[in-house]
Amino acid sequence: MNDPSTLSVISTKKIIQMNNVWTSYDSKSYALEGINLSIDKGTNYAIVGKSGSGKSTLLKLMNGMMTPSKGTIKIDYQTPNMNDKKFKLLMHKIGYIPQSLGLIKNITVLENILIGALPRLGKIQSMFKIFPEEEIQEAKNILKLVGLSGKEERKAYMLSGGEKRRVAIARALMQKPTILLADEIVSELDHVTARDIMNLILDAQKRMNLTAIMVHHDMQLALEYANRVAVIKEGKKILEIGVEGEKIIDFQTGDLTSQEILEMYSDESKK
Asked: Which fold has domain 11-89+218-271?
């Protein structure tokens, strides 16, 4: 039997935990109200809701870009806050892909991907973007992983919508993250390209044992790829479901009936 006095590290299967989280942009109204989330390590978690429902705000809370007005958030036992020194050390482990993708359009694909390595460089290297050969080789390996071999020197503005998303994913993977946050990364893509991107993320997740948290507007796509799906409506989490075999499993329905859940899934799948 282990002696508790010799143990110094606590580990958890829950990499992200939110307890009764409320947050506001203007101190007058709440963008999120009473949110409770618990996300297991190595899983794919989706957040679905209409525009303005608070989905993107949830991701900003997870990466420390915003802090809650009330409630607590823990990312692997640390409170996300960009001003906190301890959390800053963890930040490079959180790969974040915003809705805008955040690519620099006038530099090459390879240069965009190498931005993900900046947190590992010294101050001088980082300032002048002097990348060691091993980082350049790693970027080229990731380029192959996302299916962009041969396009290293192409400028970002020359790429298609699907290719731009692949570069954004590659840049995030270059950080060597444990958590990947992606905000509407397959929006405005056709179904075939959207599934290509989702398959790419799923493959990367398995290879790197990532925890992926993705914002979607398509319930059917979310349920197809995620272990669990949270539905956000007007700043509140109203539902949490998943698919096992031929069944939709209800983890938290709130006030919804089973018929309403099925109708929600059916309505989204027709879009």
From this structure: Rossmann fold (3.40.50)
